[in-house]
Amino acid sequence: MARERDYNVAWLPLKPEIAATYNIQKARDFFYQMEGLPYGYHNFMFGWVDTVRSNLPPLMPDEYIPIVLA
Prior knowledge:
mainly alpha
């Protein structure tokens, strides 16, 4: 499925101490609960809108203004 949609997928082994506590059934249940929900570019684009300090981050740091206007 990842190849068909041109997704970037990384398959990484767990450390032995983490693997020992890994519950495959819980992971599968979570996946099937979330399967089909929208997740992709829109999530990355709008995930930063609500932050701890404010609703939107600044558009550009002040230090970049002279560089852009030059």
